Amino acid sequence: MSKTQDKATQQFESLFITPARAYGSLTLEYYEKLLSAQMEAFRSYSDLSLAQARAWIDVKDSDSLKQVLDTQQKAAKELGERLQGDTKKVVDLSQEFLQKGQQLAEQNAKAASAATK
Fold it and tell me: What are phi and psi of 60, to 5 degrees?
């Protein structure tokens, strides 16, 4: 290859390919973490729901009904706390993704500026 072709290839690589790979990697990492958090939350909610359903099956008298209603209230409180924590986790992940994305954009802008000089 000629020097001109080499330079053009390097510029294309630094201006397009490298930033695309970096952004793709960042996006994949974000969605992997997000999916993991969602699966963990789903598993937790499912376990809680199944436990409550099993408790209702065991109701045989007024005492067991009272126990189930008490555990139902505790479960609702636990679910609310869990939802709040899961929401915070997703917000934190999104903010991290946004910050890293902005850093990548700034780095790519600087690299593009340097490459065109």
Answer: -130, -20
* Distance separating alpha carbons of residues 4 and 117, to the nearest angstrom: 15
pTM of the predicted protein model = 0.76
> What is the C-alpha separation between 99 and 84, in angstroms, rounded?
23
Would you give the DSSP letter of residue 94? H
User: Alpha-carbon distance 110 to 40, whole Å?
Assistant: 39
- The sign of the dihedral angle between the CA atoms of 91, 97, 100, 101 is negative
* Model confidence pLDDT, tens digit, residues 53-86: 999 998 999 999 999 999 999 999 999 999 999 9
Cα separation, 97 vs 29, whole angstroms: 9
* Residue 16 banded pLDDT, cuts 50, 70, 90: confident
Q: How far apart are CA 90 and CA 83, in angstroms?
A: 11
| C-alpha closest to that of 109 among 14, 45, 2, 1 | 14
